[in-house]
Amino acid sequence: MTYVIRGLDPTPFAALFGLPDAALAERQVVRHFADTKPGFPCRVTLEDAEPGEALLLLNYEHLPVSSPYRSRHAIYVREGASAAAVYDDRVPEQLRRRLLSVRAFDLAGMMVEADVVDGTALDTLARDWIGCPQVAYLHVHNAKPGCFAARIERD
User: Fold this and answer.
1) How many CB atoms lie within 10 A of CB 77?
2) Contact 44, 81 (CB under 8 A)
3) Per-domain residue ranges for the chain?
């Protein structure tokens, strides 16, 4: 079964780009500058930021479902990110290089599968799980920091 991994739409974050740190703090957003690569994964571009590049660390509701699994967590967004990445039937390097927690959900927002895998195994797992009729989509999280990384859907 084929799948697609898309970065987040940058539109909801655009109003934050370029704001002074004090204005960001009022919105509970923190500006960071990448000092290593990998280390600062942008959820829009699905790439790790280059050292010196500015990112915004903010709270994001990544699973807005009407179920006990409704969830939000901190994510990084490259300041100025303008286009969501799209990966058809392939896994971005940002995910391949990390230990991942993968969760499969049904249309009611209920978890039906979960596993922890090395990012190099994500392609096989995504194909297997997306092919299951009860699975509507997958959520991928970085296993160590636990933050939302990407959503995988049928192509």
Assistant:
1) 26
2) yes
3) 3-154
pTM of the model: 0.94
Pairwise CA distance, residues 13 & 79, whole Å: 9
Question: Apex CA 148: angle with CA 80 and CA 61, to 5°?
Answer: 80
Contact status, residue 130 vs residue 1, Cβ threshold 8 Å: yes
How many other CB atoms sit within 10 Å of the CB of residue 146?
Answer: 11
User: In angstroms, rounded to a whole number, what is the distance separating the alpha carbons of residues 54 and 78?
Assistant: 6
Greatest extent of the chain over all pairs of C-alpha atoms, in Å: 48
The answer to whether 127 touches 1, Cβ cutoff 8 Å, is yes
Helices (H), the chain: 21-26, 93-96, 122-130
| pLDDT digit string, tens, across residues 26-65 | 999 999 999 999 999 999 999 999 999 999 999 999 999 9
